[in-house]
Amino acid sequence: MILDSLLAGTILFTSFAMRTPNVEPNPYDYEFSIGISKDFFHINRQWERELGNKYVDDIVWLKYESNFYLKPEYLDKESKSVKYLKLDWRKTLKYLNFGFTTRSDDEDLSTYTTFFSGQIKRTAEINKWTITGSFDGYLVPKDENATFGEILEYETVFDIKYKLTENTLIYNLGQFNKLKGQQFYKAKIGLEFKL
Q1: 171, 189 in Cβ contact below 8 A?
Q2: pLDDT 10s per residue in the chain (195 long)?
Q3: CA-CA distance, 143 to 14, in Å (whole number)?
Q4: Residue 116, SS3?
Q5: For the chain, which terminal residue's Cβ has fewer other Cβ atoms within 10 angstroms, N or C?
Q6: Helix, strand, coil abundance in the chain, percent, nearest 5
Q7: CATH no. for residue 98?
Q8: Dist CA 99 CA 87 (whole Å)
Q9: By C-alpha distance, which of 9, 1, 17 is closest to 39?
């Protein structure tokens, strides 16, 4: 009974993408992703080949969201050379939250910096459609001569879902990120299965 209530509403998801390589004569690039998610946790692994090199990308997070937003997250995106452990701790007001993020500075996850961060997130449901958009912004300290554009890092996400059946959805996910000196984006279509 306890397991049933924990798994209720849990989503299993997968996606596969393939494209011609940016540089010929490399083999086709691909990405295969599987994961499990719910409002308060997310686990995702992606196997990827880009420009002939193979990578494994992992993201794991837990989230508590009420009047206070607390989200520990581990990200290891080998394909973009971005790896960190972070904790967002923010005050929530309706669809906004603002406060601080503490994030690792190095690949060994041994030194940390705390900086201002915030999020705006909106969701709309129209018939069988669910549309979500969010923007997380981080003001990461650099040297004293750094411009606003240099200290601003962000994670921008849009997610459009269409309910095929009561427990099956097709989704279009887009992400535009600037994190730890790297800019990268992703757009994909996949399937979600609710348990």
Answers
A1: yes
A2: 555 565 667 888 888 888 777 677 778 888 999 999 988 999 999 999 988 889 999 999 999 988 999 999 999 999 889 999 999 999 999 899 999 999 999 989 999 999 999 999 999 999 999 999 999 999 999 888 989 999 999 999 999 999 999 999 999 999 999 999 889 888 888 899 987
A3: 41
A4: strand
A5: N
A6: 5, 70, 25
A7: 2.40.160
A8: 11
A9: 9
Nearest partner of 51 among 32, 82, 25, judged by Cα: 25
8 Å CB contact between 114 and 102: yes
Return all residues near 142 (Cβ < 8 A) that are at least 6 apart: 150, 151
Alpha helix stretches (DSSP H) within the chain = 2-7, 148-151
pTM: 0.84
Query: Nearest Cα to 42, choosing from 25, 59, 64, 18?
Result: 59
**Total domains in the fold of the chain:** 1
Q: From 43, 53, 52, 51, select the one nearest 76 (Cα to Cα).
A: 43
Residue in this structure with the two tokens 């554009």, named with its chain if needed: 149
CB atoms within 10 A of CB 169: 20
